[in-house]
Write a structure and sequence with these properties.
The protein is of the alpha/beta class. It is built from 8 helices and 9 strands. The chain has helices at 41-44, 67-70, 80-92, 107-120, 136-141, 158-165, 170-184, 214-224, and strands spanning 29-36, 49-54, 76-77, 98-101, 126-130, 148-152, 189-190, 196-205, 230-233.
Amino acid sequence: MNPCTLCPRRCGVDRSRAGGACGVGDEIRVGAIVIHRGEEPPLVEGAGSGAIFFCGCPLRCSYCQNSQISHLCQGRTIASSELADFMMRLQDAGCSNINLVSPTHYTPKILDTLESAFRLGLNLPVVVNSGGYETRECLELWGRYARIYLMDLKYGDNHAGRSLSRVPDYWDQAREAISFLWETVGPLELDREGRAVGGLIVRHLLLPGMLSNPFSVLEFLAGLSLDIPFSLMSQY
């Protein structure tokens, strides 16, 4: 984090002194902690998903539905010990998983938090819920902590990522990240109640006028494997 190379922007900012390309410093800021029932069915089966929405984001999507949290960073700074306690409360409430929404730019701090939570008895699957703009090096850090990866594949070309999310290489980076995750965590695994316990899910938001190039996205995923669970979203 200091200098920061966690996301593909590799802005190199000392985030103990200033906000990085993600818009935040090195202290964890959280916009919301909720029991979420609006995710994909395998993630919300049962009481719901224990979602923690982190402030800031490496992307600047012009259509972001969580812009107050992701772009404006509205939320509060939270200590690692308090965040671990919230994870335990979500588990006590019967949640099926701990769903970390946009965690990339806090990865080292969250991993420390998870170590504390595991010592307190956290045993739920941890979900990395990402916009898909990831480096392999950062994903490798999650290896012994996260069991489920919910990855966006927002665009089927770099042009759309440049114009709509302000990054020049989204398509290249997201394909590499999803290929790596497919190789390492494989297909989605469910328990007897239909709850996700491991594996990869990929989702794509269909944009007006096919701006997201969905057919390129589908061709890429089909080339990896027809066993990848795919969530096509239409709620733009």
